[in-house]
Design brief:
The chain has six helices and no strands. By secondary structure, it is mainly α.
Length: 131
């Protein structure tokens, strides 16, 4: 009888626990994304906004506006660009064209804080919100 009760209890409880796992995982993912988004916004404000606008408009130094930037370039491209624009431009024609299109002859520098993959991912998450 005791074994039947344990089996019945397990049969009732296990599906409930398993059903709760995806929502618990989703909540955890949402918290991680929220923190990453906050970090990305802070990095953008501290570093990127000195040259870039969050609109479509080019900035006063000729840097492109970043609204909908992920419609122009994919995440992998942006990751490489943010990590080291000049080095990336040596092997990527779109990156080279972007540098050459600056009417002031300016190129985005390699930024020490963007050598961190975590920082680049956070900035890209923020850029996804610029729609």
């Amino acid at each position: 009888m005791k074994n039947k009760l344990i089996f019945l209890y397990a049969a009732l409880i296990i599906p409930c626990v398993v059903a709760a796992l995806p929502s618990a995982y989703a909540a955890s993912e949402e918290n991680n994304n929220t923190e990453q988004l906050k970090k990305g916004r802070a990095l953008f404000t501290q570093i990127c906004s000195r040259c870039h606008k969050t609109s479509y408009d080019e900035s006063i130094v000729g840097a492109p506006g970043l609204r909908d930037v992920l419609e122009r370039h994919d995440e992998a491209w942006l990751n490489n660009w943010i990590q080291g624009p000049e080095a990336f431009a040596k092997n990527d024609s779109a990156a080279k064209d972007l540098i050459e299109s600056n009417k002031f002859g300016l190129a985005m520098p390699t930024i020490p804080a963007m050598q961190s993959e975590e920082n680049r991912k956070a900035v890209i998450e923020y850029l996804k919100t610029l729609k």
